[in-house]
Amino acid sequence: MAAIEPLNDTERAEALDGLAEWDYDDSRDAITRTIVFSDFVEAFGFMTQVAMLAEKADHHPEWKNVYNRVDILLTTHDAGGLSERDIELAEAIDGVLGED
C-alpha cells in the first residue's frame, strides 16, 4: 500500500477554497467544523451517517458531541497532516448535510 502524502501548500489552499464551512487549524494541519442541530437525536443521526461513510473509507474523524452540537476535526495521522482523504471525507460530510 502506498504511503499517504500530506497536501502541499498549493493543494491545501485549493482544497480549502472548496470547503467554505470548514476552518483550517494550522497547529494540527487539520480542518475543523462545528455543526449545530435542532436536538440531540438529529446530531446523533448525523454522526451515525458519517460513521458509516468513515468506516467505508477507512478514515475516521476526531469528533465530539455535546447535546445538539458536533465538533469535527479531520487530519491524516499517517500522513502527518491534511491529506486528500480529509478533503474527501469533508466533502462527504457536506453531502450528508445537503451542501454538496
TrEMBL record:
Its EC number is 4.2.1.96. This is Putative pterin-4-alpha-carbinolamine dehydratase. It catalyses: (4aS,6R)-4a-hydroxy-L-erythro-5,6,7,8-tetrahydrobiopterin = (6R)-L-erythro-6,7-dihydrobiopterin + H2O. SUPFAM superfamilies: PCD-like. The keyword Lyase applies. Belongs to the pterin-4-alpha-carbinolamine dehydratase family. GO terms for biological process: tetrahydrobiopterin biosynthetic process. It comes from the Bacteria. It is an enzyme of class 4 (lyase). The keyword Magnesium does not apply. Pfam families: Pterin_4a (PF01329). NCBIfam families: PRK00823.1-2, PRK00823.1-3. One of its GO terms (molecular function) is 4-alpha-hydroxytetrahydrobiopterin dehydratase activity. HAMAP family: Pterin_4_alpha. Coiled coil: none annotated. PANTHER family: PTERIN-4-ALPHA-CARBINOLAMINE DEHYDRATASE (PTHR12599). Keywords: Lyase. The lineage of its organism: Bacteria, Pseudomonadati, Pseudomonadota, Alphaproteobacteria, Sphingomonadales.
